[in-house]
């Protein structure tokens, strides 16, 4: 099929050898690439006892047929591994330039297995692969590592880990092009466990599409829409969401104790844009240019780079009670340089702050720091401690679920996570669809599996408080985005370019690959991917009891705008989850039925998990 380069390289770091295989030998017709292919391979290559940080856990860098094409927002690649933070497929994606350049270097994907006996990096140029000594880079930050490798290999693109990945922080990220994160569930720690510091890609291969004129035609209309729909995100970046969530009671504040932040005016996205942003930046071939390249200084530390995004503005802003953009930007840059996820880092600090204020954590247990909300003095120090796993940083480095398990003493009540993943910037009490999305998501509280904040908060085409009746919409949304993550397209590009319905995606994939897709088939591929990931979760021991939200969202009402205080009705919420099981063709306990697996061609998994 066109769109693909045609080869995938499997590298075994233990044996220091690699093998090049035809992409067509992989199930790309059923799973496309990226997240879908990763889910299938991960289920088959691991078992329940595979530890995420063991050498048995594969680490896969996968593009899709759409990656690196001349279509809109084709910058993205996927990393799949068994995630340390959640023990689910990591299913993380990143933009920038690295993904398209992996294809230019001659491969659709890299599957890394085993563990090196000393720090190494992988260098790939025009189909040639070598494993190089990285001893001199171990311990260095992402920025210094990237600068060094860029100097050594001009025009190459770099994906690297920082000290957080080396020290196995459970939410360490892989950073490409310095500022773009494969974030959330800890793929960087898996890379660190393999002593793999970086992957450098370089090459001249051009991605061929089946019908270049057809691709232009599909995107001619989409480009018009892109300019209209993306206007705000182009101007302000994702922090444009701050006023939206703050006014609807969905801006997580002080560890989700409130849904709006009384100092949110100081986090006005216009302030970020016009006082701190030096230029707008785009990923490979993207007209939206949503990224802000900022500069700031805090406590004598001067930084410049991309971000913060909206989610970071929540996690290191309202959720820890910080309204200072200088601190926020420096914290974001430190997380990027250490290579760790900003949402989980900020949310875990917020969790500890609440435990401290409630007297569950004593001052001695938090290195004698004043851990109250709003104490800005401790934040940068904490980031150093987390990345190095020093003092209180050791517990903080495990994320909310595991830290709470180790602390005990009733801390579980305040541990805000779903399946081990801390929620991003949407309090579900003011956007119940986001709550359903978190509870049903197959990697925990992720905003990107079915971005229900779009119809409920942005476009206001759906009642944000209604619980029942959304199950089919959510199922289809999840299925479409599973395909978007597998072809792979940036979700903003998909949303703002109006390539967010199955029929248009089918047209785009048809002109890219030359294989005739229908909208119905796109939904079926998405369904297959979703079921594959569900099987993985069931095998790991997750059950229907995990398809829920933290009690706080059911028991503690928050102001969701205009003084209206609401919590979520638990009984109705769980009924809605059952509706969703039914819509998915699963049984009452959320297990894919025999007929569903047969329908999707997944017969080999019947009765297995
Ligand atoms: S919309 Fe933003 S994140 Fe997506 S490809 Fe464009 S610049 Fe990158």
From TrEMBL:
The keyword DNA-binding does not apply. One of its GO terms (molecular function) is 4 iron, 4 sulfur cluster binding. PANTHER family: ALDEHYDE FERREDOXIN OXIDOREDUCTASE (PTHR30038), TUNGSTEN-CONTAINING ALDEHYDE FERREDOXIN OXIDOREDUCTASE (PTHR30038:SF0). This is Aldehyde ferredoxin oxidoreductase. The keyword Iron-sulfur applies. It comes from Aciduliprofundum boonei (strain DSM 19572 / T469). Residues 4-205 form the Aldehyde ferredoxin oxidoreductase N-terminal domain. Its EC number is 1.2.7.5. Belongs to the AOR/FOR family. It comes from the Archaea. Keywords: 4Fe-4S, Iron, Iron-sulfur, Metal-binding, Oxidoreductase. Pfam families: AFOR_C, AFOR_N.
